Every structure is written in C-alpha cells, then in structure tokens.
Amino acid sequence: MKNSQDTNKLDHMSRPPIEYMGIDSVNGPLIIVKDVRDVGFGERVEVTGPDGAPRQGRVLSISEEAAVIEVFQGTSGLNQPDSRVRFTGRPFEIIVSRDEVLGRIFGGLGQPIDGGPAPFKGERRNINGYPINPVARAYPRDFIQTGISAIDGMNTLVRGQKLPIFSGSGLPHNDLAAQIVRQARLLTDQEGFAIVFGAMGVRHDEAEGFRRSFEESGVLKNVSMFLNLADDSTVERLITPRIALTVAEFLAFEEGMHVLVILTDMTNYCEALREVATSKGEVPSRKGYPGYLYSDLASIYERAGRLTDRTGSVTQIPILTMPDDDITHPIPDLTGYITEGQIVLERALFQKGVYPPINVLPSLSRLMSDGIGEGRTREDHRDLSSQLYAAYARARQVQRLASIIGEEDLSVTDKRYLSFARAFENRFLSQKSNEDRSIFDTLDLGWELIMLLPEQELTRVRKEEIEKYGKGNGKNSNAGNQEQPASP
Amino acid sequence: MKTDESGTPGGKSKKREGIARIVLVSGPVVKAVPAEKFSMNEMVEVGEERLAGEVIGLEKGIATIQVYEDTTGIQPGTPIFGQGLPLFVELGPGLVGEIFDGIQRPLKVLRERWGDFIHRGKIGTALPREKVWSFEPILKAGDDVSPGQRLGKVPESKGVDHFILVPVEVKGRLKWIANGGSYTLDDVIAEIESHQGQTYRIKLYHRWPVRKLRPYKERLMPSEPLITGQRVIDTFFPLAKGGTAAIPGGFGTGKTVTQHQLSKWADADIIVYIGCGERGNEMTGVLVDFPQLLDPRTQRPLIERTILIANTSDMPVAAREASIYTGITIAEYYRDMGYDVALMADSTSRWAEALREISGRLEEMPAEEGFPAYLASRLAAFYERGGQVTTLGDHRGSVTLIGAVSPPGGDFSEPVTMHTKRFVQCFWALDKELASARYFPAINYLQSYSAYVSRVEQWWGKRVGGEWKGLRSEAMEILQEDAKLQNIVKLLGEEALPDDQKRIIESARLIKDDFLQQSAFDPIDTYANPEKQYLMLETIMHFIRRLKDIIEARVPLYKAMELPVVSEIHRMKFVYKGDDPGPFKDLESRIDQEIEKILKKQASKSYTTFTTGAA
Q1: pLDDT in the model for residue A13
Q2: Which pLDDT tens digit goes with each residue over A392-446?
Q3: Which domain holds residue A51?
C-alpha cells in the first residue's frame, strides 16, 4: 500500500462509460448536458462534434438535472443536436512509466506529438495527485549548486524547493531557466535525475529554445516535455501543469529520481483559469481572477518536496511574467505566498546590461538558511549573504540620493557604497550565460566586494570571518572542508 | 457527556438517522434533499466512503453541505448520513505533541493507513482508544462537585499534567471515582450524581462542538506579559497573556519565521499552532525542530507542550475554515484546566479566503473584494475567544491569540487586515523594505502598536527592577525623531545634517541594529530573557546619553562612533545571555571611560587652541 500513491482510491468511479447524444447549451468553453445519470463530479469526458474530432473535457458541476462540462480544446464547431458526449466514468488520468515518458515530447493533454506511441504499459495516475502528508515530508536541506552567484550566494536553491522566477515580458527568464537546468550539476549523475518541462501558452520558438538547450547539454533523453503552445487551446492549460507534475511525482517517488520541474508561463495558466471562471459566471475577486486562485495555485506548487522514506525529490522552478512588471499583481502575489521564495528579475538591471538581471533585494529563498553553512556550503555563507544584502540595500538608497544631490556631495562612506553597488552589479550579479561558478568562487567574490566598504560598516559579519575570508581574499579559504554539492 | 452520548463518533450499534440524497455537486459544496433530515451545522457523512461534511445552509427544502474532503466522483443520488450532532472535537489526553488536520484527523495515523499521501474517507478516531494512560484521582467519592472542577489528572507529557474536569453542565455529588491506575479513553473513571438524581459517567475524554465557546466564570483584564524572548515585541510592543495580536505582512516579510519564533519561545504552558492554508514544508519544519529544541523554562523538548493543526494549502479548502475552530476549541480546553495557552494561526487570511470561496459557491452576495459580508463578525468572534479568565473550577487560565495576516500585495487597506486591526490589541506590522535588507524581525516600529504597554509596566518594574517604561519611551522617542530626519536624509544625505541631528541618526541606528534586530538563527540571540532585554537597552541608552556630552563638548561625532566599545555594543547580543548583569555593567563603565578619554583630550586640545590662539 505504502509504495503506491495510486491505491485505486477512486474505485467508486470505475463505472463503464456512458454516451449521450446532443448537448443543451454552449457557453464559451463550457457545455451543459441535461438529464444525465450516474455521472460523478470531476469525471473525464470526451466530446465529439459533427466534424468527428474528439475533444477532452471535465465535469465541473453535476446535478440531477444537468452536467456542466469544460471542454479543453474549445467548443467551436460543436452543435446542439449532433454532438456526442461520452462520460468515461474515470477522473482525468494518465499512464506513466519511466521509459515511456523520458526523452519524449507530449502535447498539453499528455498526447504524444513526437511521432512515438502513447504510453500504455505503466501505472494509471490521477493527474490531480494527492496532498502530501506533512508527517511524511522530509525537510529540504540539500544544496543545489546552480553556478549562478545571485542564486547560490544570495537565494540558495535546495532539493525539493519550489522557487519561481518572477519575470517581465522581454526579460531573459528563459535563458536563466535553461542555464539553471544546464548547470545544476545534472551531468554528474546520469541515472538519478530527470527534467520535466511543462509549457503553458508559450511561443513555438521559446519551446524550441528549451528543447535545443536540453539537446546541447546532452540531457534530452532525461527530459519529458509537455507543450501547450500559444496557439493551442486555452482551457487545456489548466491540465498541462498537472500532467507534468504527475509525471514528476511518479519519477521522483516511485523511480527514486531527482526531478527538476520547469513550468512556464504560470501567468498564462492563471489567465486560462480566469477565462473559465468568468464563463461560469463566478463572483470574481481581485482583477477578475476567481477567489480560489490561491488554492488552485497551491494545488500545483505544493506538489514539490521530498519524502522521508523515498529517495527522489521534486524541485519546481515555475516561471511567470508579472503583468506590467507589477509584483503586487495577484499572480506573483499569490505565488509568492505559496512558494518558498522567489527570484525577481528587474528591467532596470537588464537595461544596464546585467545578465542575469536578478534584483536580489526582493528575491528570497525561504529554505536557504537550512541549506547553507558549515558542512553544506561554507560556515561564512549566512553572515556574508546577510552583509551583502544589507550593503546592497543601503547602496541602492545611496544611488537614489546621488541622483538627487549628485555624487560629488556624498559622504566618503556613501561614495564607497556607490562603488560597491557598481562592482556588485557588474561582477557579482553579472555572469556569462555559460559561466558556471562554484559556490566557493561565489563566496570569495562576495568577500572581495564587501571589503570595498570600510570595515566598521560590516556589522553582520564576525571579526574572525573578516580575518579569515575577507583579508585572506579567498586564498586557502575553502581548503578541504566541503563535500561536493548535490545535483537537484 | 451523558452515558448514552459519549460513545465513539458514529458508534457501532448506533442507528443512523437522517439519510438524504445528493442533488448537486460543485466542488466542496454539495446540495441534498430532503433538508428536514438535518439541523444547521450538523455533521454529516457523504456516501459509502463516509466523507466528512457539515450542514451550512437549509433553505427551501434543500440542505447545503460543505464537504471537508475531495468530492471527485461523487454523483447525484449518493446518500448522505446525518450524525445528529454538530462538528465537534475530541478533548482528552493524546492531544499534546500530535499533529492533526483541520477536522482533527491525526496525521500520523493517516500516514500509517494511507502512506505518504492523504486520501479521503473516514478514519478511526481523533484520539487513540487503545493507548493506556495513568490516571490519578484528585477528588474522592462523596465530594460535592461543580462544573470545571479538577477530578483527577493524567500526565500527558513530561511537562503537561492533563486535568480531567467535571463537565460544564454537571453539578452534584461524586458517587464513585476510579483508583489511581491505568485506563484507556473509553474506561469510565468517575460517576457523578446530579442534584436531580441523574447519573453521569465520566471518561477521560469528551466531545465539544467547535463553534461553541467553552464557558468560564469571569473574564479578567490581562496584566502579565507573554514573554516571547523577541526584543522588539517584549520591550516595544508587548503582548499580554490572554491578549490578541496580529502580524500582517506581504510575502517574504517573515510572518512565518516570527510565528515560529513565538511558538518556540513564548512562555505559555501550551502552544496550539494552526498552519492554515500554508506550506507543507513549514509544518514539517516544526515537526523536525520542536522535538530537538528545549523550552527555556522547563528544559523539556518544545514538542511536549505543542499541538499542531495542519491544513496545508493543498488540502481541501472547507477543512481550512474548520481548522481555526478546531484549534481554538482545543486551546480553550487547556485554558479551562488552568493553563496559559498561546494560539498561533498562520494565516487568518487563508481562513478568510476559505470563507470567501465557500460563500462564492453558495452564490451569496459579496461585500468587499468578494469576501462575504459576515467576514468582520467572524473575525471578531474568533479574536473574542482569546482572553484571561477565571475558569469554572476557579483556576486562572488564558488563551492568547496571535494571527498572521497575509494582505494581497502587502497592502494593509485590504478587508482582512482592516477588520483584524479593529479587533486586536497588538499590531506587529511587517515591512517589506526592512525584509529586503534582511533586517529581521522586520517589524516596523512606526506602524506597530500595543495597547498593553501600561498594563504590563508593573510586571516589568518588578521583574527587572528598573524604570522599564521610561527607558522604553526614551528609545521610542529617538526612533520617532529619527524617522522625521530620515526624510531629510533621503533628500540631502546624512552629511548635510548638523552633528546634533547626526547624533539622533546614529543613536537610532544603534537601537535598530543592536537592539531591535535579532537573529532567529543564532543560538544565543534567538531568545533574550527580560533581564537581557532590559540590560541591553540600558547599556545602549547609556551610550546614547553620553553622546550628548560629546556633542556639547564639540567633539566630532565620528570620534565617538569609532570607539572600540561600540563594536562591543554590536557584539553583546550574540555573547551574553543576561543571567548575569556583570558584563553589561562592565560595558557601561567602559563606555564612560572611553568617552571621558576623548572628552579630556578635546578639553586639553581646545585649551591649547585657545592658548595658542591667544598667543
């Protein structure tokens, strides 16, 4: 029992399929079928229009009189008398097995689009998954080295974390995600890792860009891609991340792999949710999004983590573009409340030519403090990053001040903060898209930069640390006390 | 509590009544007919799987039911079984150290039964029936008993004696009481004969409807601080035992870390921690940390005084609404035994959103931002369940409520924050800007307030023996002045200020960096006892007062700020525990010495200047 998540819990729902002819009304992506019997809530439905093309759907509400069904491929072309509705008697499920999903490309509903066969020999799993019992979770603590200083040094990623990238239109979030995938120490372990890529409403070239980057780094055979592209059905986007995560959970918790899940773009997902909610006539909450946006997003993001008695892990990096770069917009806002931190990209840095344009101040990794320190990264990591934060926050204030009164009139200390800010942005944050910095290089660089400030300004680091790491400037500082960082 | 009533929920031989049939399923909301079978807020079980639910509406012959579990696959026509009693919790030994979901299902048992993932359906009872407890009587047969009196006790954990109380409605004579020994929850341990001649058989546990307040004799005015070991809270915005507090803050401002700090270090006897719609990993973190951390008062593992309620954000939303009530009822139960209980709810916004979601499914008319019009009254009712009381059994007990609020976009003008502000006495506003500079706890000292300062003044005076309130106001004043000056600094820079105003800025910086800022991750700094808090502030204020002399003597301020003793002030929070005032006194005299030294130097210098000038 313990080994399988899918313990035929939905047996009560294995009624043989029933088919009805004719639908009662069509409203946006919803159809209503009257006088149905023995149909359950959430059941998967197949709708066939007069053109004979099958579409997938799901029962949204069911009463004695009628069933309301959302149709994932849209309702255009359906007519009232000739459409057939087949209630499958099962919830939305996919079939998964390791060798049938890895190295493959699927559509947004899990149908193969790479010319290969549909998976058939594996386990059937409900795509909605089940909540992980908090008692069964293992607290994530294993450091993942991404080779990116702004992340490793300041917002450390750990195995089993959900750490989204908050981006804006036109910012290089895809490059960053691809770089994380390439560098996250994946290549050291050929068997134990997998990447699950879920795309919701992304452009063809973006999806292709990811595929190429996987191919170039030679990981393609460990990747499972689920693509709902910009011109695919909107409603289908509600299903895509759930399928991707079902596969990820299977690979992690049944096959013991360490799985990195990239979901892009969550903004498109939320918009699809709003579209469906509106056509259902639901009471909207902020900006027209449904009141349950939080719970709905949580049902996706919470599907990450580690379990105490299984080896694998699911690490999530969802990407979302903040509408109008506004971090208080409901989508980034609610996401930030659920995920374990966020990596925020900033347009101003991007325009200064900083890549990756990560503004570390609003960025955060909630699991960082348990994933760093002696034995994990290095003993000085916590104090150093705290000092870098404090210094950069102060430096930004000085930058603002300088823009008012001019650099000339700044105090000597403030001038040193300004030059620190420049060095921090140009040397610490900036790196090449193929530059893979070890955590020790990142920390040493951090020390080198923080020493640009007068020593009495360094209140967050200890004297001994300044002596050992700041003044030694990286020499011998990482002498043989660390094990190698883990893969994701 | 009567003999025939206190069997296990849904007991074996009890005949079920009130069977109705489902006519509509829409997510967690289900409608059923005929409505006459049920009463309002009655607990029901749905289908053969016996999914838990509650009646939340009876209208036009149709009953509306919120189901606490996933409703996938439920069909119209499925039977619903009324339980004949409202949503209740089981109260008895076996709560402490455990983790339950929103409707009090024990998560450890769920894991044994279902594995690592939570499925649905009925599962045993909340409290273990097979576990044997050692019971020790306090009263003896023949005693007159009144409601709330302690009948006997069970050592529930090493730190907590669980008192078995006379049920609230029972008054009479103790006919019989069990001898000290081992009993299970189902054993009868006492019989009470009421004045009316009715016999009540008492077990180690009973049930209580979660939406019903547990009665007490008298409400008291909170006057004793709840010491949390967090300087910004205890010294600046103190909370009283039996008080109410809210922690609002956008994401990433440290609500959860603050809540965790409070549940670790607050000097309460029992901690009830409700993870309401939050992350699963956070509950796991508590489960991992608390058995290892020691209560600073009793030196016992923290888990031995902690009860966890977890409705993580991926668990069913209806149970989120219930989780708050489950938690507060348990808190009141321990209060009735005469304990100080602190309840942390993280986050009340998720609870409010659960109300909104259910309300939306019921197609109720929305008020502000889609929240139902009864949001304010529900919040008020929740916070009113906190308080310090004389219990029915004449003990003193308290429930302190600390609710986190997660305002969308960090905007405090949204409905949940606004209404919460009206009902709480302590408001600890978390600040995004402070958080992004990794300045923790990110409690904004200008926006926060506490109505308990004058109430707890006396206690502090007695405990630390000094002028606590005066010292506090002195420090507050500097922070206020600093806030004004910061506006100028933003425009003109610090250099533009005269030394006297720079003194304010430097003083405020000392208070902020060396007193208010506190590291949750440093083994010593994480908890500061009242003595340490007072001594630290006293030392800092001493230095600040001496800065005035510096200014008066026209010594450049930076000379004082570069004194070696300043870095000692920076370090004191990481070094001393406060048990011994010695080091702080030494520090004060070092401050005096070093200040005197530069003052003397200046005096001789100005004398020289003066004399040379004269020559």
Answers
A1: 60
A2: 999 999 999 898 888 888 888 899 999 999 999 999 999 999 999 999 999 999 9
A3: 5-90
Which residue's entry shows tokens 């729902």? A13
Query: Are A444 and A337 contained in the same domain?
Result: no
The CATH number of the domain holding residue A15 is 2.40.10.170
CB A71 within 8 A of CB A55: yes
DSSP string, B360-429: HHTTPPB-GGG-BTTHHHHHHHHHHT-EEEE-TTS-EEEEEEEEEE--GGG-TTSHHHHHHHHH-SEE--
Average of pLDDT values for B419-445? 91
Using the Cβ of A91 and the Cβ atoms of chain B, whether some distance falls under 8 Å is answered with yes
Number of domains in chain A: 3
- In-domain check, residue A487: no
Question: What mean pLDDT, rounded, does chain B reach?
Answer: 90
Give residue A9's pLDDT band: very low, low, confident or very high (50, 70, 90): very low
Whether residues A231 and A326 fall in one domain: yes
Quick one: A162 and A121 in the same domain?
Answer: yes
In A, which residues are within 8 Å of B27 by CB distance? 41, 61
Q: Which of A56, A90, A124 is the last residue of a domain?
A: A90
pLDDT reading at A52 higher than 90: no
The predicted structure's pLDDT at residue A189 = 56
> Which residue type is seen at B184?
T
Together in a domain, A78 and A103? no
Tokens at A201, concatenated: 């409403």
A24 plus A138 within the same structural domain:
no
| Shared domain check, A242 and A170 | yes
Q: Evaluate whether residue A207 is within a structural domain.
A: yes
- Quick: pLDDT tens for B545-560: 999 999 999 999 988 9
Q: Which residues are within 8 A (CB) of A241 and not within 5 positions of it... i.e. 6 or more apart?
A: A198, A200, A263, A266, A269, A300
Mutate to test the interface with B, among A135, A324, A338, A382 (most CBs of B within 10 A): A135
Is 60 exceeded by the pLDDT of residue B613? no
Residues A134 and A278 reside in one and the same domain: yes
Q: Which of A90, A117, A149 is the last residue of a domain?
A: A90
Do A320 and A413 lie in one domain? The reply is: no
CA distance B464 to chain A (A): 29
pTM score, two decimals? 0.90
Of the residues A34, A133, A246, A296, the best mutation for testing chain B's interface (the one with the most B CB atoms within 10 Å of its CB) is: A133
Taking all residues of chain A, what is their mean pLDDT, rounded to a whole number?
88
- List the structure tokens of B501: 């105003």
Closest in A12, A283, A310 to B73, CB measured: A12
Q: Does some domain include residue A376?
A: no
Identify the CA nearest to A95 among candidates A129, A121, A57, A131. A121
Tokens matching residue B276 = 């309401």
Q: Is residue A155 within 8 Å of A268, Cβ to Cβ?
A: no
pLDDT band at B606 (very low <50, low <70, confident <90, very high): low
